[in-house]
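Trying the structure run again after the queue cleared.
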Amino acid sequence: MLRRAAAAGRALRWGAAAASRRQRSAAGSPDRGPRSERAPKIYTKTGDAGFSSTFTGERRPKGDRIFEALGATDELSSAIGLAAEFSSEKGHTFVEQLHKVQCMLQDVGSNIATPLSSAREAHLKRTSFSEKPVLELEQWIDSYSEQLPPLRTFILPSGGKSSAALHFSRAVCRRAERWLSDYLFVLARYAAMKEGKEEKIYIKPEL
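Done. Tokens:
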């Protein structure tokens, strides 16, 4: 019985000491400061075998059309981000619209990553969106179009850095989504007009 009491006492002291060490570790030593939380790793290695996961957890080959569409959407958002930076330097007020479009594309990507073949009701509810962004986009297009000179010939991507970057975004958009390319086209022309830059037009080469 005495041996059991002694053993219990040692266990109690060991537990108290361990708890004390954990507290010191969490608080950090006086000279080193609090221990920072470890940041999560960017890589997961779950796609090393050539497969990746959708939002629903379904595993598909990396060459699947879902991941191709996600890549095109991501590329478009990146191109718009670059155009927004150029436009911001020129003080264009439509930069906030471009940021809103990028957020729309993020929602589009979530929807693409939710295949109906494996989606549950909860997945569909989280990734659904209304037609309101499309209606708002049409209003923006009409607003800018009313301020632009008539289009009488083909316009080449040009008109300054902001305009050219928006034209580039428009070209990327044609691989990802068509309704947005009209907005980017009129916005590119609008940027050139506001900056006083000349839009280069198509001239048929002489044969």
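DSSP finds seven helices and two strands in the chain. Worth checking whether this holds up in the mutant runs.
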